[in-house]
Write a structure and sequence with these properties.
mainly alpha, 2 domains, flat, Winged_HTH_dom, Transposase
Length: about 120
């Protein structure tokens, strides 16, 4: 039974391009191979509790339990109204409240080419 589960995990690991999902598959595979939560956490740079959660989700839901519906992280601390007020205030100060997507308007093309020629292998 364990060897079949390990084989399914190996297949899933080969098929995914999501590195976080790969890590979850690997954690469960290592657990099936007999490693402790603490050992797996040390190997993957995660706390023992995180590895335990991966395992519990796998036990309850199989491979599907390891998939994420959303990116985990700390919830926003600002309400929508606060975010709107902040955006308005920053806009008045000529700042942007969005992810930076600008390019350097005064970039020297020749200097950039010289830099690339000498610094990129």
């Amino acid at each position: 039974m364990k060897s079949e589960e390990i084989e399914r995990l190996n297949t899933a690991m080969k098929e995914t391009s999501d590195k976080r999902l790969y890590e979850r598959y690997l954690a469960v595979r290592l657990r099936l191979e007999g490693h402790s939560f603490a050992e797996i956490g040390d190997l993957l740079g995660r706390v023992r509790q995180t590895i335990s959660l991966y395992w519990q989700n796998y036990q309850k839901h199989g491979l599907a339990g390891l998939e994420m519906d959303h990116s985990p992280g700390q919830p926003t601390k600002l309400t929508e109204e606060q975010r709107s007020q902040l955006a308005t205030m920053l806009e008045r100060m000529n700042f942007s409240f969005t992810k930076a997507t600008y390019t350097l308007a005064q970039a020297d093309e020749d200097a950039q080419e010289l830099f690339r020629k000498h610094n990129i292998c």
